[in-house]
């Protein structure tokens, strides 16, 4: 029997997922459980390892970072994961694109696409909804502009995207403000951006900084 663990804090979403699961597999062919937080999820996974699918709203659940999600995947390698959220950041999608055990769909996907995601995930196949797949295809066609940056420039760009000032970056890197300003000018020139906002937007899209870091 297939076990679905619904790791989502929205009542309406859990009810909708239960309906889709029952419609796709029949009520007798699966067991659907709900977990309210990370602790409950880990306890459930400890009991239900085989033939288990976790449907997780990454944006609403109490996971500190994408690395914590990936660590759960390593801890429970038998489990299939399907992220289902209203919105997933570009940085998160890029980060998870190489993780073939994690599928991704959006809550505004069509009914047919949601059912297809459930079927593929149960069969052990990764499923990406068409919007996420199209985004990744577009990203892969684009040149990796940030490769032109040096390691130092990449790190400074990451700090800029996290909201640090020139003075704060200089202090963290034990450098002069003049040196940081020079690096900043070179970064903007190489990326073809004109201000901190555009540089931050680029860093998020390029996966150099996670959305959770941006909001801290």
What does this 3D model show about the protein?
Strand 1, helix 1 and strand 2 (30-35) form a beta-alpha-beta unit. The chain contains 11 helices and 5 strands; from the N terminus they run E-H-E-H-E-H-E-H-E-H-H-H-H-H-H-H. The chain is 53% helix and 13% strand. The protein is an alpha/beta fold and 216 residues long.
Nutshell version of this structure?
The protein is α/β, with parallel strands linked by helices and 216 residues long. The protein contains eleven helices and five strands, in the order βαβαβαβαβααααααα.
Give a topology summary.
Layout: E1 2-7, H1 11-25, E2 30-35, H2 38-47, E3 52-56, H3 66-75, E4 80-85, H4 90-96, E5 102-106, H5 111-122, H6 130-141, H7 151-161, H8 166-172, H9 177-191, H10 196-205, H11 211-215
Helix pairs in contact: 1-5, 7-9, 7-10, 8-9
- For the termini, the CA-CA separation is 42 Å
CATH superfamily of the largest domain, please? Response regulator
Average pLDDT rating: 87
User: What low-confidence regions span 5 or more consecutive residues with pLDDT below 50?
Assistant: 211-216
Total number of helices:
11
Tell me the total number of β-strands. 5
State the secondary-structure class: alpha/beta
Total number of distinct structural domains:
2
Indicate the overall shape. Answer: elongated
Q: Which value, in Å, is the CA radius of gyration?
A: 20 Å
User: How does the major sheet shape up?
Assistant: 5 strands, parallel
Might you state the CATH topology name of the largest domain?
Rossmann fold
CATH architecture of the largest domain: 3-Layer(aba) Sandwich
Compressed to H and E, one letter per element, the order equals: EHEHEHEHEHHHHHHH
The residue fraction in helices comes out at 40-55%
Strand order of the largest sheet: 2-1-3-4-5
**Proportion of residues in β-strands:** 5-15%
The top-level CATH class of the largest domain is Alpha Beta
Keywords: DNA-binding
Pfam families: GerE
Domain HTH luxR-type: 142-207
InterPro entries: CheY-like_superfamily, Sig_transdc_resp-reg_C-effctor, Tscrpt_reg_LuxR_C, WalR-like
